Here is the input.
Amino acid sequence: MEISPALPTAAAALPAPWPADIEEDTASTTWRLRIRMADHPGMLARIAIRMADLECNILGLTVLPVLGGVLDEIVIRPAGGLTKEQLVRAIQDEGCECSAVADADVRELVDASAATLSAASRAVEDPSRYAEVLREVLAADLVTVVPLAEANPGRTEGGHRAAFGVDGATALVARRRWAPFVQLELARAEALLGLFDSVRANVSGPAVATCADGASIVLRQGQPGDADGVFALHERCSAETLFQRYHTGMRTMPRRWLHRLLVPPRGMSLLAVCGREVIGLGQLIPGRGEIAEISLLVDDGWQRKGVGTALLARLAVIATSRGHHTLMAVSLPGRDGIFRTARRAGLAPEQPEEEGLLRIAIPAASAPRIPGTF
Here is the structure.
């Protein structure tokens, strides 16, 4: 049976790689061992027999292939009075090397595949937990987020350190005191992060929503080729609608501004499209820290049908995938349309500040999802 190793106690600083002095600690009721042995028939049976002689109960076993042999991870409940040093010596007497002994938690003994999938689900729902999930999957002591330029992947510390690129700008650095990372574990972590990359990329892909009147609309990222459709959207909008969006008395949209609307610096645009007609436009602009700025414009003929709600809900999903947990919008005095739209989208808007700024919190438990009907 393959089990997921329990998390070790996090250490503030990493000592020299194993082996080190083995503690005479018998307080833990569950231990995790990593035993390196030659890949010969009967070797594991000999270790199991020696464990039985020492009255140790084997709770779980994972076989990790390594160069020149195998690395068996065994979780045991030791006999009362048995020390870690005595156990290591008994394993050495069988011609094997015990490369690590660490305290474990019997509550962590679950199927490795199920544990990894569960961890991946948590990270997909909340990308800010990437480091936490990677720490769990690798049973690492510590996982830190650093700029990619500072990750230094060549610095392995004898296998006790591993660096993983995340999004082209940052990296996750994992460290583990009790045992070096083996290739199978690193491959599992790479596959997990690859899944996160795919999910993050797909979040910005097209999505379909159904309005209150039954009309189906497509929400997709804006591109420079959408300039004519966005220009036509502005031509159909009333002066009041344009004022609420741009807070000026403009009546038409200068064509030289269209590219900046569709491809804003550092941000993105989101279009609501019905057939070939652009009926709504949203923008997401990263701000400081976890805050992102948003704006909405909806064709007068499509207002109060859920288009704005669909756009805002989708922008919140995209913002969450990029690590933002608060949205900022401008709410003019006496106009609470964006406030009500945020409430309908499942968000948590605060009352507007005196300057007209509206903070909209994205619930931490789960990212908003676009419902089927608005």
In short: The chain is about 30% helix and 25% strand. Residues 183-203 form the longest helix (21 residues).
